Each structure stands twice: as structure tokens, then as C-alpha cells.
Amino acid sequence: MEINTFIVRSLSLLLILSFVECFHFHEKELESEEGLLGLYDRWRGHHQVEDRSTERFNVFKTNALHVHQTNKLNRPYKLELNRFANLTTYEFANTYANSKISHYQALQGPSGCNKSRSTYGDVKSLPIRVDWRKENAVTIPKSQGAC
């Protein structure tokens, strides 16, 4: 019975780890054009990206340097190079975050919304941070493609 439990747990862990898409790099890879090109080729292999154009490499290089500079600031979060690292912000937004709702309408909420009434009344104190995953309000981020 213990062996079956061990096998099930091992396979479960293997399954979970197969979904993790971490891609780590070292600061030394960012010090030269050759290092960045090697990093780009490693990233392409990891994410199975075939396009090796100069334009895609330049976008990747800018994003990799941004990730590194941001992480050096020791903020409470860390950025990583994901499968979108060779896309500009504009390309990503147009492909994966395209919305049919105008920007103004999205900020204002639905028409006819009574703004004078708050669901929560006069809240005096709020927590500094909330991990909505732990509250079961959201799930971990997943790629939904160009929907």
C-alpha cells in the first residue's frame, strides 16, 4: 500500500512540475551580445519558438534586460522570461488582451451603475496585501491564447 501511495505522489509531483514553465538566466548572459544571443537560443529551445529574426531577438533582448533591471530593485515580486518574451507590449496586448470594450467604458463601469452606493459601506481599514489565490477567488494565471 505504501508503494502505491509513493507512486501516486511521485506521478502527481511530476505532473505538477511539467506544468511549471520557469526559465532562469544568469546575469553573465546579459553582459554581451553573444551572451544574449545564447540566452535567446536557449529560451527559443525551451519555449519551442522557431523564429530567429533580428527583430524578435531585439525585442527579446529589451525584455530580458527589463526583467533583470526590475528584479534588481528587490520589489516584493519577481519577473521572469515567459513564452511572450519576444513580443512587444503592443503586440502582446493586440494578440492576447484585445477587448471589444472601449477604454473609457471599461474605466467607468456599466451604464446606469449607481456610484453613490458602495457594496462595502464606509470601510476604514484594508489589508496591505491580499493573495486572492489563497482566498480561492482566482486561480493561477494560464495562457488562454488569442481569445
From TrEMBL:
<dbReference type="InterPro" id="IPR013201">
    <property type="entry name" value="Prot_inhib_I29"/>
</dbReference>
<feature type="domain" description="Cathepsin propeptide inhibitor">
    <location>
        <begin position="40"/>
        <end position="92"/>
    </location>
</feature>
<feature type="signal peptide">
    <location>
        <begin position="1"/>
        <end position="22"/>
    </location>
</feature>
<dbReference type="Pfam" id="PF08246">
    <property type="entry name" value="Inhibitor_I29"/>
</dbReference>
<keyword id="KW-0732">Signal</keyword>
<protein>
    <submittedName>
        <fullName>Putative peptidase C1A</fullName>
    </submittedName>
</protein>
<dbReference type="InterPro" id="IPR038765">
    <property type="entry name" value="Papain-like_cys_pep_sf"/>
</dbReference>
